[in-house]
Give the backbone structure.
Amino acid sequence: MKKKLFSLLLAASMLTTVLAGCTSGTNGNTPASPAASNDTATVDAGNTDVDTPDTTTVAGTGRIGVAMPTKDLQRWNQDGDNMKRLLEEAGYEVDLQYASNDIATQVSQIENMISSGCQVLVIAAIEGDSLGTVLEQAKENNIPVIAYDRLIMNSDAVTYYATFDNYMVGTKQGQYIEQQLNLANGDGPFNIELITGDPGDNNARFFFGGAMDVLQPYIDNGQLVVKSGQTDFATVATQGWSTENAQNRFDAIISANYADGTQLDAVLASNDSTAMGVTNSLEANYVANHDNWPIITGQDCDIANVKNMIAGKQAMSIFKDTRTLAAKTVEMVDAIMSGSEAPVNDKETYDNGTGIIPSYLCEPVFADINNYEELLIESGYYTADQLK
């Protein structure tokens, strides 16, 4: 019921709030499996002398456009490499493009994918509310669109959505803090601070909402104390999921609230890039005067953050196996190209402003010091050497 109530509230807020998508990560390293690929096709943004796309679809043949937001963050390199490899193994030609986090570049790349004959578009949007015009072109050319990880907002050209269960991500983060602090058994009070992602990010709202559904009752009864007083989404959001922005905000929080030796017991951080900013700030301003690191959550199991986990600086990170999401997206592409409906498991949660988008939600798990070897190394996601 909490999830449905949160979804209804979120849908209402979409009427007045521009929402977008999600990211995280801290570096450009890639996992051990699959192999990385750097041969991305580049199409001249000014090329208009092309044929109208062929809309005849057959599974295992044809050209698929994959639009990723940036190569600057680890997870998008992983997603792009996984998608390209699996689609090519399935028999498709792949036009994989990275947009350097520039909206105009991504729009131009998608335009070229449409004009060059791509028959399905898989798009991880930089800003989900900025693609309406170009997706109208896709709709006019009968090209299905799969929103990848980030929901594309306010466009009826979106056919499907492939992502992880974003509300569950936040729920698991909140539950981890709840368990580690023994809140359900009445322990406390403990000091906590909150940080989430980009204020225009649809996923960030789900992450934060899921976590706060767990933690808010403990804030209300005084077991958790937010000394900064910063608890609403707009205040705790981090523009661009930026590590630097997160660090700057926490520098100010620590200076104002914890410089006198007050213990900070936990930080709800929605992903690894914001968690890294928190860790950097704590190292510079806090740990010299305290014996224990606070419990810090995260998401994506980026290499630098897993190293921090091993070192005791970050407690956990949600593991979203990008291989799983890429494989499910390829299944969706195959179904579309076969003329059938794509596999989905959610038809009620994700309203992009034009209606509910049929979605496939993969289930996230959390990694911490107790299970990271099994989840990340034994599964082949990373090698042990990458985490040294």
